[in-house]
Amino acid sequence: MTDPNQLIEDYEQRTAALLDQAEEAKSQIANLTGAATSSDGAVTVTVTAGGALLSLSFGHKADDMPKDRLAALVMSTSKRAQAQAVAQIATIMAPLIGDNSEAMQFVQSQIPHIDVPDEPTPQAPPQFVVNEEQQEAAAHQPPPRPARRPAEDDDTDFDQRSLFKKEGGW
Fold this sequence. Notes:
Elements: H1 4-30, E1 33-37, E2 43-48, E3 53-58, H2 67-97, H3 102-110, H4 132-139
Antiparallel strand pairs: 1-2, 2-3
Helix pairs in contact: 1-2, 2-3
C-alpha cells in the first residue's frame, strides 16, 4: 500500500516546481524584447513586446535617406522587432503547459497579431518628360550629377601696389 504522506509530499514538490517554472516564465515574458535591423542596415531598433522603443540607432545609409523614408523604415523595423518579441511568448510557455495543449491554444489566442509592413522601397525622383523621344532618352541616361562650385582663384590681386613702396615714391 502507498503511503498517503508520501503522495502528499510528492504532490507538494511537483506543485512547488511548477510554481517556480511559472514564476520564471512570468519574469521572462515581462522582460521580453525584440531587435531588428532593416535590410540595408540603415535602422536598428530594440522594442518591448508591447512595442515600446528601447533603443534606436542609425547606420551610415540613413544619412542620405529622405526623412519620410527614414521614418517609414523606423516604423516597419520596429514592427518586425515587436513581432519577434511576441513570438517568444509561445516558446517560453511551451515547456510549462505543453506545445499542443488547450492551455497553449488559449495562450496563442491571447497573443496579439502584429501586422509587419514591408520595408519602404526607395523611390526615384520624378522626371518630367515633354515627348516620347525625351522619355526614351531619360530612361537610358544616368541622373545628372550635381554641378560643382568653381574653384576660387587664389592668385587674384586686389591691390596691384607693392606693400613696400608708397605710390608716388618715398
